[in-house]
Amino acid sequence: MASEIYAKDFVNHEATRDLGLDESQAVDHGWRAAFPDLELTVEREIAEGDFVTVVWRGRGTNTGRGNGLDATGKAAEGRGISIFRIVDGRIKEEWTETSQLLILRQLGLFPGRQ
Fold first, then answer.
1. Which of 10, 66, 98, 110 is in Cβ range 3.0-4.6 Å of 21 for a Cys bridge?
2. Nearest C-alpha neighbor of 82 from the set 73, 93, 74
3. What is the third-level CATH fold of 2-106?
4. 11-41, pLDDT tens digit by residue?
5. Coil, strand, or helix at residue 79?
């Protein structure tokens, strides 16, 4: 349950805007809907003070609809990095970077090299 992991005033600092918990969870659920077989693997974790950094790899097949994606039936994979600030045992802030352009290219939805 999200309330066991995230602080009530959680903020996800995206590249262009900040999201509260409900909106951030909706985005996460959208990715899971678009890629029902999504697998995330942690490749590295680094912790210092209140911060935990996770390098992760995600892979799945786009057989569902979510986050504006219609099902393509194509597989995609990529790597990302997330930084979490932990306060009182819960995630209070998050910064995540990954290449959504790479995903779109693998799905055939954007021209160019993968």
1. 10
2. 93
3. Nuclear Transport Factor 2; Chain: A, (3.10.450)
4. 999 999 999 999 999 999 999 999 999 999 9
5. strand
